Amino acid sequence: MRRACALALLLLAGPAWADDTVYAASQQAAPLYGRLASARSAALGGAFSAVLEGADALFGNPAGLARLQGLNAGLHYQSWLADVSDETGYVAEGLGPGVGLGAYGHLTDYGTFQLRDDNGQRVGDASARDLAFGLGLGVASGPLDFGVAARVVHQDLVGEQAWGLSVDAGATWQRGGTRVGLAAVDVGTALDGSQGAESLRLGASHRFDLGSAALLPAVGVQWEPQGLSHVQAGVELQVNRALALRGGYDQALGDTLLEGLQGFTLGLGFRLGSVCLDYAYIPFGDIGAGHRISVSWQAAPRGGEAGSAADAPLAPGPAAAMAEGPPPDVLALPRHLAQDGRLGEALAELRRLTVEQKSNGAIWRELGQLEWRMNLRGQGLADLRAAQGLAPDPALEAWIHQAEAALAAPGGLEKP
Question: Rounded to 5, what percent of the chain is helix, strand, coil?
Fold first, then answer.
């Protein structure tokens, strides 16, 4: 029975180097916890695991939590082989500029097994499941982000109980649309003396602005000291605000002993307002395929909801002056994110740019305008004043005075 369960875990985790007697990875503890991900990440072949942003970073490189804005929540469900399934629920929030915190719970159900004696006679049934709880923190420092996450795992394997603790840690560097990340995942898990399924991951991605669309390719390398290493590539085409197409490839550096379609992954993403629905198809050759579905929700950052009547700047507003500013590639990413409705990510990118280019008035102006739109009025005015000090503009100066007067009046801007 133990051998059968270990083999099932092995197949789910990814086959390792063959041996005359056992697979090395079958000795690893809780291998699935190195592969927790949203359907979006899974559809990209694992290539983004080192450069994940937002709540997805909880399950790969926790440094990505540093750019998190607003409250995020979601559910991931995956059907694996032989009726194995896993479910994950999470909640995460940006606690302020450059700080993000997240937590999750996860259940893997390996189903029910038949127990037999030495003569092959059935003597009953048993179940096997894993339950885990994790907590992650990300902190930004200029263009660098750092993060750490820990999880506690409880395993019930055919009536035998075991506990384990593992840690994920990582860092990312970001400049414009380029991200580079390095993460150590699932380090330290020990269930009943078993070696943890550790991996070291290095990856890079770059976002290309295509007007109303965007292209996001990535490459990654995953080294597993006790298992099978991988080279990965993936790409996401954001067709418009509502639709994304995804594909990836995971090349194992060794013989998986499987036949048929494997390595390739495909997926779709749909967005409706603040809700996203994602799907990933993950084939495992002649032993079947996995299907992952994710539903996620993101609220506006603290300070107010975007989209209300109060979000529009008072005429003439600072927007009219945005035609003059830095080269388009500097502000292309945050503007595209804002256009796509991802205001929290646009806000984080603009704040990062102000750290890198403190004397660029156009960036401060764009940041202040977005904060005003998101109902972060006090901070927005402060940043617009900073923009005015760096690049004086009579129209902006008049707008600032008008806005200050309106906010000071009874009822503020909401009163005619």
Answer: 30, 40, 30
CB 264 within 8 A of CB 241: no
Classify residue 303: in a domain, yes or no.
Answer: no
DSSP-derived secondary structure for 262-313: BSEEEEEEEEETTEEEEEEEEEBGGG-EEEEEEEEEEPPPTT--TTSGGGSP
CATH number at residue 248: 2.40.160.60
- 116 and 177 belong to one structural domain: yes
Residues 232-255: what's their mean pLDDT? 89
- Return the higher-pLDDT residue of 158 and 295: 295
- The answer to pTM > 0.90 is no
Residue 255, CA atoms < 13 Å, CB-side half-sphere: 4
Same domain as 145, residue 22: yes
**Helices first, then strands: H and E counts in the chain:** 7, 17
Task: Check pLDDT > 50 for residue 52.
Answer: yes
Confirm if 3 and 128 have CB atoms less than 8 A apart.
Answer: no
DSSP letters for 63-75: GGGGG--SEEEEE
Q: What is the mean pLDDT of residues 113-135?
A: 83
Which residue range(s) make up the domain with 265? Answer: 2-298
User: Is the pLDDT assigned to residue 312 strictly greater than 50?
Assistant: no
Indicate the pLDDT class of residue 175, thresholds 50, 70 and 90: confident
- Residue 136 and residue 57 in contact, taking contact as beta carbons nearer than 8 Å: yes
Query: Is the bond into 326 cis (omega within 30 degrees of 0)?
Result: no
Flag whether 304 is in a domain.
no
Kindly report, residue by residue over 368-396, the tens digit of the pLDDT: 988 888 878 778 888 898 888 888 888 88
Mean pLDDT estimate for the chain: 77
The answer to whether residues 409 and 272 belong to one domain is: no
- Return d(Cα 250, Cα 176) in angstroms, integer: 27
Residues 161 and 292 in one domain: yes
CA nearest 83: which of 127, 33, 19, 147?
Answer: 127
Assess contact for 160 and 128: CB atoms under 8 A.
no
Tally the residues of the chain.
416
